[in-house]
Amino acid sequence: MTQTSLMSDSITAIQLLTTLEQAILPLYEQGIQSKAQAPKLVLAYSGGVDSEVLAFGLSAFAQKHPHIACLLIHVHHGLSPNANTWVDHCISRANYYQLPVQIERVNVNKGPRESLEAKARDARYQAFERYLNPGDILLTAHHQDDQLETLLLALKRGQGPKGLGAMAPMQSYKQSWLVRPLLSISRPQIEQFAAQYGVNHIEDESNQDDSYDRNFLRLEIIPRLKQRWPSIATTAARSAALCAEQQQVIDDEVSNRLPHWLTLPMDIDGLVTESSGFKLAELNQLSPAWQALLFRGYLQHCSVSLPSQSQLQQILSQLLDAKDDANVAIQWGDYQVKRFANSAYVLTNLALAPLDATRLQNDIRALFAGELNQANGKVGQQTVSLQIQSRKAEFAQQEGSVSTTPLLALPATHVQVTIKYGAAGSIKCQPQFATSQRTKPRELKKLWQECQIPPWRRQQIPLIFYDDILVAAIGLWIDKRYIAHAGQPGLSLPLLTKR
């Protein structure tokens, strides 16, 4: 996106309005062409000098373009004793600008070894997201000195080109856009503008607390850098832009190569149980740099938070060095990487959590006592559990020969019916999909492999037993010997429900 170069000592209201128009109007026009609903502008409005100057400019923009809806959002964190006073200030100024304002109150709960800055930022953006529709434009008041701070923090963390690219003037955000129209304007220019045009603003006392990394840079380091090199904010922004360009080239090349490395999603009876995996067969033929780039691209493709560089190296080392049958499980944060059939899969800890067997038994009791008695008339009071995630099994009359969706034959009156999650791999069964040449039952562990069920899902598939005999795996198969014959009532098993 092209922006006006603002290198003079001061900026005017006309220049500010022009900068906003250059940043906003192309995205707005793109939005009204592709969306039924016209995009709106949402300003992250703190009441500090940066966001006040941006709100001042947005007011002029709204007067010139009254057909474009605008909204100011002020987030009340409750972290300062002055927070309520800031709310009053923002409401008063919004009325002055003739712009609607929304006050959002959030709770910021910092856990051990967590950054209060990061938690507050996350809470703010979650509040903004509640007001963003697809195609909307979120405006923030980040400026050139913020860019220098971001670049220095990226160096401190040892980040690569992506981190050193710092903040982009415009980027996609969720299904919306995030725009930083003041990124070419310095902090002194913003402060001079506020003084020239009488823009009232608040002063957050926490900005003087140098225990926060950004404040330390802002108060102690950057002034000394500017004293030695007055144009460092401008030149650092140029370096960040070059890093961002290089990263874009890398991202484009990864996007071109990545499809070759992705597996198709795995499904059970039409239900997708795993998203795309990452092939490992030829990965060790690539350089370590490309291994890391492609696997990081896979994680981004799966929309998960990225591990650190050291964690990524550990993941790749374990995946590539492990034997084919090794049970690889590498965890970071809320995610795990597992290996199956020479491919890697990223999963959430929630998806891997064991199922609640007690809940299962409570949910699925006494189905046979009612419906089966009505269907058969000869079934006694078996101990039964056959309802999966509150979806009752349906009974049907088997018609003709065995169909593509066979029914499970009803048990004899003396048979105890139970459902289990997990069973010994040596238990045998003879699924209806077995070939005619295969006349003997196969071990369960072989059937899991034949159905391409990864080990972490095998404990989540309900197995039906008649006494000690495995007669069906819900969502996968029915034992040939227990399929209802033509004209006989049977049980239509429910489909699996993805967790």
From TrEMBL:
Cell compartments where the protein resides: Cytoplasm
Span of domain Lysidine-tRNA(Ile) synthetase C-terminal: 417-493
NCBIfam families noted in UniProt: lysidine_TilS_C, lysidine_TilS_N
Residues in the signal sequence: none
Family matches, as Pfam families: ATP_bind_3 (PF01171), TilS (PF09179), TilS_C (PF11734)
Catalyzed reaction equations: cytidine(34) in tRNA(Ile2) + L-lysine + ATP = lysidine(34) in tRNA(Ile2) + AMP + diphosphate + H(+)
SMART domains listed in its UniProt record: TilS_C (SM00977)
Binding site for ATP: 46-51
Highest taxon, organism lineage: Bacteria
Protein name from the UniProt record: tRNA(Ile)-lysidine synthase
Known function: Ligates lysine onto the cytidine present at position 34 of the AUA codon-specific tRNA(Ile) that contains the anticodon CAU, in an ATP-dependent manner. Cytidine is converted to lysidine, thus changing the amino acid specificity of the tRNA from methionine to isoleucine.
Chief location category: cytoplasm
Similarity remark: Belongs to the tRNA(Ile)-lysidine synthase family.
Sorted UniProt keywords: ATP-binding, Cytoplasm, Ligase, Nucleotide-binding, tRNA processing
EC number(s) given by UniProt: 6.3.4.19
SUPFAM superfamilies tied to this protein: Adenine nucleotide alpha hydrolases-like, MesJ substrate recognition domain-like, PheT/TilS domain
Matches recorded under PANTHER family: TRNA(ILE)-LYSIDINE SYNTHASE-RELATED (PTHR43033:SF1)
UniProt-listed CDD domains: TilS_N
Domain text: The N-terminal region contains the highly conserved SGGXDS motif, predicted to be a P-loop motif involved in ATP binding.
